[in-house]
Every structure is written in structure tokens, then in C-alpha cells.
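#dry-run=false #mode=assembly
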Amino acid sequence: MTIQLGMLAPLALRRMLAAIGALLMTTLVYLSAANAETLRVYVPSDPASVDPAFWGTSVDGYLMFNVLPRLATPAPGSEWKLELDAAESIDMSDPTKIKFKLKEGLQWANGYGELTAEDVKFSFERHLDENLGSYIAGEFDALDHVEVTGPYSGTIHLKYAAVPMWQSTLGWYGGTIISKKEAMENDGSLPVQVKATLGAYTFEEFSPGERMVLKADPNWHGPKPHFDEVILIPIADANAAEVAFAAGELDFLTSTASGPDQLREQYGDKANIDVLSSVDYTWLGLNAQHPSLADKRVRQAIQMGVDMETLLAASYEGMDVDAATGFAAPGMIGYRPASKVKYDPEAARALVSEAGAEGQTIELSYANFGARDTQAQVIQANLAEIGLNVELNAMDEATFWDVTAVKTPDRQLTLKAWFGNPEAMYGLQYFTEAEFEGWNWEGFDDPRYTELMNAAWEVADNQQRGDMYIEMQDIMEQSGSFLFVDNSPAVIVYKSDIEPGMLPDGRPMFYAFKKR
Amino acid sequence: MLRFCLHRIVLGFVIVILAISTLYVLVQAAPGDPIALMVGPRATPEMISALKERLGLDQPMPVQIFNFLTGVAQGDLGLDIKTRRPVIDEVLEQLPHTLVLILASVILAAGLGIPLGCYSALHQNSWADRLVGILSVSVIAVPSLIIAIYGMILFAVHLRWLPAIGLGERGNILDQLHHLIMPAIAVGIGWVGYLARLVRAAMLEVLNEDYITNARAFGLPERWITFRYALRIAVAPTITVLGIGVGYMLGSAVFAEIVFARPGIGKMMYDAVSVRNYPVTMGVVLASTILLVAATTVSDLINALIDPRIREAQE
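#status=ok
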């Protein structure tokens, strides 16, 4: 059989055209990949759960804020404020009824349909379901039910006025709206790699221990993010993350092991370093129910005997960290400009002597984490100077929080930190007699405090509520049961050509990141 | 040989059961309530009790162990109390990464350690022998964490020859191998020195045996005597040690996986223990115990294959 050139020509032409097409496609894909901007972010761990009912790590929060919506969400910037997110409007004129109207046409990713008021109802009411076992059920104590009044509108009915709930829960992780459809496909909760996202980014990939990949969602209702892709890289050792940053393999560090001066020296002008105050709070709790601390004079002596300036300088490598003044961090309503406790070892010694407590031994328990060990040692040294002998009891995090093993009456001094929230009531609400067996390790109970707290739930005026919080924190301090230490400063590092979009405490909002 | 294999496998199985039961008790006896940690500082004691009941942690210890072993037999290791995913899925996702790292480390250790030890024995008391000796002791003495951190600073930050973190690009074998170099060196370099010393000592002993002298008397080539007769016997203890070494390398893999931000069961174990994630801790312990038992069993089988005396003694 003879094959003629004419027979080959169409075949060859087709093949050539196909090859050119494939080459063009490859080039286009390559070019688009080359143009894609990727932000590589260090995070300390894998996520535990992006389901607001079960969140447990800071990474869960980063993901919730970047891939899932709320009615209103914290806005990037230097001040704590909420901006409307999935909601088009909110009416809070009645303190027990929050009316909302959703933006129309918001679509869940991956074909999970449109966001409706049914999703909002499901997202909030599920926390009350005992079978679900939401870890944050307590935050929804005030919720009665959510009434759906239309596809995009509804009313959140509260059992009692709970104004702080708007900021502390609905405008925070607890208020995250999830797709009812996806949750129902997963026995009522979300998988770690949520598919039905509705935010600036979709959650494209989760490789445990390796990375989480977020991709810009073209359907997002907000401004187009500068970075098309964000890769979160979990590294258990912050020192290793700092080295990886120096090697050019990371662009943004959400926390560090070294202090800012050391990092500036190491990175030079290749990096910017911000030191921000978090909303978390560390304090020394003095248990008034324990015999060794039952005398208020001893507690006040301890408050006055700790040199906070030295303690902070020692624990944060000379970083300029201000002492905390209560449970409200700077920029939050209820922030106290200054503590009323002053370092006065002479007066402290006199109080110890007056109380007949010289040479008394007191146990200080703490989770040996971060700067806590240094802080405990400074406290020990300071209190030795006023005549008190402090025994340090360092524990790992899990042992320290073992509430079922150690009851409040057995605790003495505890140095601890809680996750905070831009609403001070989030933490203040636990210091009642009812929490003696729970989280009130100070055994603190004051009728005026309780009265103010109960009243503050109903006060919509921020200024007025803030004043009440200030008085509550004054009472805490005056009781001698609290010595506020710090607001866990966060050191944030990013490449100098990046302009990060962050909440006031450094939580990244990736859609607001820009390249200089 | 079949009887020998069966005997080793049954023994391995018994070791796994005993080790897991003991570790279960130890893990549970550690202070710290995982449920309290899981639900955070604000959970009520009632919520903690309810979750304990749901996870079966309120049962007596023997019941918990029985339930765990029954679950293991059915391939059910429970749910991760953090992510609520099946532990078996998480372990199977992470295990291959650790296996690759350990395999690379074993190849490095055996590939360098055995020839170096052999060379040292054949050139006893030469300057090369002394140099290998000094280097061997040096690398044995330096902890893998130090090698990992300083290796990273030198090769990733200053020289930029090797990547600092991660597994490498998906589907790109070369890139993944590139990312594997430093972790494998960090885990395996100490074993290079250890094996070199071990092989040297074993070779010197074997080279003085009568049958080697006989072989030389028969005029067999020295190369043949060395590799065919001496090394084959000298390498037997090395294989046994390497089997046990897999367990030690698992320990080093924890650091390597943390420092180089690589997934794997070492890092998974570290995370799980630090937050008292019992189901994951037990799942990882089970996987690493099986890995260790499998490695020692395989090393015994290889020894039996290359040295008939071991096989015959067992039979």
C-alpha cells in the first residue's frame, strides 16, 4: 500500500494545530499561574475545626473569618469595629429582638446554593441543641429562637436583653453562619475542610501537617483580594518558622518565638515587625476562698509586691509592653486607662506583717507556656522580698486546665490567660458565685459587681456600658483577688513589600492584604 | 524457614497487644483532662461530664482497654477529639510521610555507614580509619534537633541550596526529594556513625576467624573473601541494630517533622500528646509500635536468610 503525501497532510495539520493549541493552553495556564499572587502564612498548628460549635485553635478563627460569613464581622484596622457582612441591614432597636435582612444573591461555594435566613436560623439555633454538644453553647444562653420572616430576613429573639452578645458572639466566631445543607450532609456539623464557603476565599485544600490552601472566590461580594492564593503552613516550632521566613519561604508570621529587637536585627529591612496588643488577658488570680489568702491584706500585699514593670521587661525581652488594666484591652469599650495598684514593696511588707503572714508559703500554679515561667519566677522573687515564700507549680497546659481534678477551694495563686474577645463581658461574666466550681478560680463574689453585670447586659449605649465595665474591673482589683498582667502581646512579622490587613490584635483578614 | 517466619509474626503480634495495653494505661494515667482542654476554659463541668460519657472515658480502665482493642481489631481507632475525624484515616494519611522519611534515613545510614565501616576495618589504624572514627563519634554525639536547626540555617538561609520547610510540590518527585535531603540527614546522620563503628568492629572480628584464614590459604581473591564471606556475616548484627534503629528514628522524626514542617506521625504524636488527644495518641502509638515490631521482625528474617545458623537455631 502506498501512502501519499495528500493523505498525510490533513492528519499532520490536525496534529500540528492540536499541538499548537495545547502549547497555547499550557502557556496560558503557566502565565496565569505565574501572575497568580500567593501569600504564604505561618500558623502554629493545623485547624481543629472550622465549625463555630467546635473551634479550638487560633487557626480555626483565621479560617472562619476568611472563608465563612457572619451577619456583621470585625473590620481590619486599628480599632475594634464591626461592619456588615452577609447582612444588608440590622435593626437592634428592641433589645430582645435583632432584626436582620440579608444581602440577596450570596452563593455558597461548590453548589451549595444561596445563603438564606434558614441558614442563619440553623447556624444559631444548633448551639442550643444538646445532642450537638456545641462547645460555645453558653454564649447562646440568651438566644430563644430565630424567626424566619422571609427568604432573606429574620428576627433573632432573645430570652433577655443581651446587648454584649452582638459583639462577643454574633460578630465573632460564634456568629459564623454555615450552610445548613452541608452541615446536614455531615451529621449536623462541618468537616474540617469546609466546602460551602462564603467569603473572600474558598478552602481548596487541607493536607494535615502540611498546608491549607485558600483560593480567592470570584463570586465574593466584597472587593477582589490582591492575593489569589493564601497558603497557611502549620509549623509547631516558632523558631523553625522564623528560619523559614529568613529563607524566603514564608511571607507572614502570625506569632514568633523571638522578640522584635532580635527579629529586626536578623531580618533587617526585609521585614516589617509590628507589636500588637491582643484581646487575650493574663492575670494572677488570688483565691480568696483559700485559708492562706483569705485575709484581704495578704492579697493586697501580693498585688503591691509585684514589680510589674520588671516582670514585663523580663518576660518579653525588653519589648515595650504595657501592663493590662483589666479584661478590656486597649481600644475596647470598658478599657481602664490605668490600674490602681502601684508597686510598693514597703507597704506590701507592712501589710504582710500586719496580717501575721510573714514566712507563709503559698503555691503558685501556672501552665508552663510562653512567658509564663519567667513571670512566675519574677513573682516568686518579688514576693520573697515582702516576706512570702512562693512555691512554683509549673504544669503543662492540659494538666493546668484540668478543672475536674482541682476544685476552686484548693487553688491558691494561679497565673493564667484566657482567650479574649473584643467585648469585655465575654470574660467578666464568669466571676460570680455560681462559677465557684467552674471558672471563678479566685472565689470572687461581690454584690455590686453582680448587680453591675446583670445591668450591663441590657445597656445598649456603649459609653454607659463601658463605664460599668470599668467599675466592675475596679471592684475586681480592689478585692485583692486579681493582679492584671498583660494582654499577651503579639509580634507580627511580614515581608516589607506586603501591607497586611489585620484586626487590631493582628488576626489576618487576607482579603485586605496588599502588595506595596 | 516457614516455621521461623510464623514464630516471628506471632511473637510480633503478642508484643503489639502487650505494648498497646501498657501504653493505654500510661497515657490515660497522665494528668490532664483532655475533655477540659478540648472544650476550652469556658466549658461547664456538666458539658465536660457529658462529653466524657460520649467518648467512653468514664468507663473503668479495663473496659476502656477492651473497647480499644476490640476497635483496633475492627480497624476502628475512634474519633479525633479535636477534628472529629476517624483516627485511622488521619494515621493512614500521615504514616506514608514518616515511612518515606525513615526509609530515606535508613538508606542514608546503611548506604554510608556500612561501606565506611568496611573500609575502616580493611584499613585498620590508617589515617582514613582514624578520620572515620572521629567523624562517626562526632555525628553520634550531636542530637538530630541541633543538626536540623543548624542545617536549616546553613543550607536554607545562608547558602539557599536546600528548602527549609515542607514536603515539596505535589507530583514533582525531584522537588520532593530535594525537600527530603535535610530531614533525612537530620534523622539518619547519627546512624551513619553508629553503623560505621559497628560494621568496623564486626568485620575485624570476622576477618580474624579461622574460615577466613582458610579461604586466604586456598588463595581466594581478597575482594571475594571480604564481600562474600566476611561482610555477609559481619553485617548481620548491623541489620538487627537497624531494625531497632527504626524505633529511634521515629523519635528523631518527631523533631525533624516539627522543624521542617513536614506532616507525619511523629509530629502528629507530639501534637496529640500535648493536648491529651487520647484517641490520636493511641492511634499513633499503635502505628509506631507496629512499625517497630515489623522492622525488627523483618531484620530477624533477613538475618535468618543470610545466616543459616540463626534459622537452624530457631528450628
